[in-house]
From TrEMBL:
Residues 2-122 form the Response regulatory domain. Keywords: Phosphoprotein. It comes from the Bacteria. The modification 4-aspartylphosphate is found at residue 52. This is Response regulator. GO terms for biological process: phosphorelay signal transduction system. It holds the Pfam family Response_reg. PROSITE patterns: RESPONSE_REGULATORY (PS50110).
């Protein structure tokens, strides 16, 4: 399964990658800017996108809107250090764009929760129609 991590914090990117390594064998790419992540989405769309909502170059909501406009059909997990209300609002907005949101988690996400979300992404991948 291909996973794209988007977070402007290099420590958080490394932490998420380490957590994924513990969960199994994944093809993981990391991006520290929304613009870099959009380029990676266009090159090789991941099965799972784990996306921070607060970034300096573009906020997560705008990034998700652009991902939806680019017809991204993989699963999405939202991460944020913001309060739960912001996470829920972002989740609703992303779903309204047609994205498959699996969850919205506070940072740092617990390993057990990440494992549950990865399992959901694998199920989403198997149920998704092939292009």
């Amino acid at each position: 399964m291909r996973v794209l991590l988007l977070d402007d914090d290099s420590f958080m990117l490394a932490l998420l990658e380490d957590m994924l390594d513990e969960l199994g064998s994944f093809d993981v790419a990391g991006a520290s800017s929304a613009k870099a992540a959009l380029a990676l989405l266009a090159q090789a769309p991941p099965d799972l996108l784990i996306c921070d909502l607060s970034m300096p170059d573009m906020d997560g909501i705008e990034f998700l809107r652009l991902a939806a406009e680019a017809s991204y059909r993989g699963a999405v997990v939202l991460l944020s250090g913001m309060d739960a209300g912001v996470l829920r609002a972002a989740e609703r907005l992303a779903m309204a764009q047609g994205l498959a949101i699996l969850g919205a988690c506070s940072k740092p996400v617990a390993a057990t929760e990440l494992g549950r979300l990865v399992a959901l992404a694998a199920a989403h991948r198997q149920s998704a129609p092939t292009p």
